[in-house]
Known about the structure:
Layout: E1 22-23, H1 33-38, E2 40-42, E3 49-51, H2 59-84
Antiparallel strand pairs: 1-2, 2-3
Amino acid sequence: xxxxxxxxxxxxxxxxxxxxxxxxxxxxxxxxxxxxxxxxxxxxxxxxxxxxxxxxxxxxxxxxxxxxxxxxxxxxxxxxxxxxx
Length: 85
C-alpha cells in the first residue's frame, strides 16, 4: 500500500511515483459528481488518473458508472416509446 506524503493529501502516482497529483474536478464520463465519488486525481508528470486515496485504477468504476447511465437512458427511451403506442 502506498504512503500518503505529508505535502499532499493523496498517494503518489503508482506509475512514476510523483508525490503531488492534481485533484480532478470534472471529467467527460462523470461530469462533476463522478470524480468526487472515486477521489480522482491526475499525475501532472505521466498523466495517469487514479484513486487519490488508495492509488487504485478507476477504469472499472468508470465502466460501471457509464454503463449505468446508458442503461438508465435506454430504459427511459423504451418507456417513452411504448407509452405512445
